[in-house]
Each structure stands twice: as C-alpha cells, then as structure tokens.
C-alpha cells in the first residue's frame, strides 16, 4: 500500500496486480534501499538454514529427546534428579552428572536424552525461535494435588508443538495420593489413560522412593519406537544451542544438541553470528569426547561468541564457509532481521491471509476471569469455523494473560483474547516485542463479533 500510494502521488494509477517495468521497479527499490537489503538478507538466512533432503537409506534410529513439564511443585526437578540417580546406581560409569543443560540416561542399553531445564516455558521459548528441540514430553502431575493451571498450560504447549505426552503421576508415596482422580481430571483435557482405553501412557511414580521410574523410562523408549525417530549420522552436524555462557577461563562455552550428523573435534561450525572450530567437547558426565552423533548433547569450546539458546548451529566444510554463515547474521541479529518479515497473525489482516490461502487455521488463546466465560467464548469461537478456515482454541484458562500465554501465541502464531482480564507486565512486554496480537474484552458478544468481522474482512481499523 505504501508503494501504491507513492505511485499514486506521482500520478501513476496502479493496483496490487499491476506490472511495473524494470526501471520503475529499480527506482522504487533504490528509494526503499534498506528494506530491500533486509529482504535479501532474510532470504539468505532462510537459504542458509534450509534443510537438505535426507536419503531414507542413510537414516538410523536415534535416541528420543525428552523434556519434563508440569505444575510448579509437582516434582519436575525431583523426578529429573531421580532419573539421573537411578541411572548411576544401575552401574553406569562416569559417576556424577555434570550440569551441561542436558543429560543422557541409559536403560536396557538404550539412550534417552533429557533436557535439564524443566517447564513448558523453556520448551516453547525455543520453539518461538523456530527450533523444535523435543520428541516427547513427560507431564508430571502430583497425585495428591491433581491437574492445576500450569498442568493445563503444559498440556496445551505440548499439543501445540505436536509432541507426544507421557504422564508421570508423581508423589504416589504420599498419603493423599489418588491416581484414579488424576486420570479422571486429565480425561477432561483429552488425555485418556491407556488402561482406560485411551492413547496416553500414565505411569504412577515417586521421585522420593523411585518407584515406577524404570517403568516410566521404558514407556519413553516404547513411545520412541512408535515414533521411529531417525537421523543420518554420516553428514555434517546440525542441531540447536541449548544454553551458552561466557566462562572467564575458557571463553564462550555452549551446550548444543546434535540433531543430525556427527560433530567432531576440529569441525568448523557456526551458530547465529558466532563461528569457530570445535576445540574441545565434553559429554554430560564431564568426559572429554571426540565426536557426538544424533540426539547427543555436548558442551563445546571454540565459538567466537555466546550464541542464544534455541539458535541453530551447523558444521561446515571449511572455516570460510562457517565464517560466511555467521557473517550473514552479524550486521543485525537474526531476530531483528526476521522481525520485519516474520509473519505474525493479527486480527487486522486475517481476511487477506485467508484470501491468499495462507491461513487454514486460526489459532486462538482465551483467558478469562472465570472458567464459565472461557468455555462460553471457546464454544462461540469454534462455531466461527467455515470451509476456508478452521478456528482452533489452542489454550484456554482462568487468570491474567501471562508470559506462558504470549510465548505460546508467538510460537504457534495465535491471537490472544482476554475476557475481563489483563496481561501482566511481563506478558505485555513480550507481546510488544514479539508482535503478538492481544485483544481485551468485557463483553463476550464484542469478542465474537470482532473475530467474525475480521474473518470477513470487515473489521474497523483501530487508530
Ligand atoms: P518442581 O517445582 O516441579 O520442580 O518440583 P520439585 O521437584 O521442586 O518438588 C516440589 C516438592 O515436592 C519438593 O519439596 C519435593 O521434595 C517434593 N516431592 C517431589 N517428588 C516427590 C515424591 O515423589 N514424593 C514426595 N513425598 N514428595 C515429592
């Protein structure tokens, strides 16, 4: 519209479908120089990050990557600790786990990789940057407390990412534990226990007595078999940064998860605007290693700077290629570069996106002051679906709009509707930064009408 307006002021009547000759296009391009360069750069980055096609014959099975989610105090940290300790007792050499942000557990001679930062926020924050880190989520629910608000958040974050959920019903050693009640409550969120005829495995455990932990890990392996997780180990490594810091003595220290290929000492790598040669590699037990295959977390030394968590890392044939990769990111951060072009849904352009065929699902998150309103708004929203676009409520809950809601919206390209609630300060800040469309209402009818009008392209603009 900016360009049409500019041309209009020059006396040239054009529409969005008008072809412009080369000279004319060049003139416009020159005038909007910065924007054009930016677009080219974004293209370059997308090209750099593009995945090569893999040959099925080169793929071999790889360990599952698992994260632990659940309500605060339901035992996520205790369970992770218990899992690691169970493993040490079962005779694994190397002893005490070193904290590198992820750990590998061995059971029945097979491996499972655990991401050490519990919680769905950490998980979705990575996804927000475009990285899918996890295959399976263990949802921890305390047997004496049942389903709580963050349990629901975790369920919806995992579902939005399309990852498998295995439930660990924790604290079964406690007198108030009621396993059946937890199953019943989870059924309300479409997680039906396998022994109740459903598809979700639910394993009663105690992080304290360690009862059920082996069964839980076996269930993870079974699920991994169903998912047929595979990767090609014989190619240049590629993966994501799990965490990174600056160490006074060692320089930038990064924990990366190798997702494809094998990373070796001496490989030239780049992660975001940083590049270098892998000088040293340490596994989760603190052992020096020389190579790391798919699903292996390793701490590496040798990058020129500290990359962001969630950033993609790649190994390259030569130092120059790695440097060139990183330099594409240097002038500006990738996030900043992508900001201008990253497609963010907003009520104002839903209709044009539907018309352009870009939007088949409209994702909505509903927060309200009472559960009754969440349900009422949800049911009305779902009814707005038509042949062109399906309206999906990916999360609904009672309470203020929080950080978790906003990162979920950002990662899943959703619109947030608040009914008689407001965003908290942190949520508001992230929503602004991530350009998440957040709408507040006090009359249900107005919310429904706005979405309906937006879908039809009749929304009155807000100034
Ligand atoms: P997180 O917030 O989900 O990481 O929960 P924590 O792991 O910090 O656990 C919260 C509290 O519950 C702590 O006091 C733990 O000792 C306790 N807890 C965790 N797991 C169990 C369990 O299996 N049995 C009992 N009795 N207490 C547990």
TrEMBL record:
First and last residues shown, out of full length: 404 to 866 of 963
Function, as annotated: One of the essential components for the initiation of protein synthesis. Protects formylmethionyl-tRNA from spontaneous hydrolysis and promotes its binding to the 30S ribosomal subunits. Also involved in the hydrolysis of GTP during the formation of the 70S ribosomal complex.
Species of origin: Eubacterium album
Name of the molecule in the record: Translation initiation factor IF-2
Predominant cellular place of this UniProt entry's protein: cytoplasm
Keywords, ordered alphabetically: Cytoplasm, GTP-binding, Initiation factor, Nucleotide-binding, Protein biosynthesis
Similarity comment text for this entry: Belongs to the TRAFAC class translation factor GTPase superfamily. Classic translation factor GTPase family. IF-2 subfamily.
Domain of life, per lineage: Bacteria
Residues reported in the UniProt entry to bind GTP: 70-77, 116-120, 170-173
Keyword Oxidoreductase: no
Subcellular location: Cytoplasm
Annotated stretches, region: G-domain: 64-212
Domain (Tr-type G): residue spans on this chain: 61-230
GO molecular function terms attached to this record: translation initiation factor activity
Record flagged with keyword Membrane: no
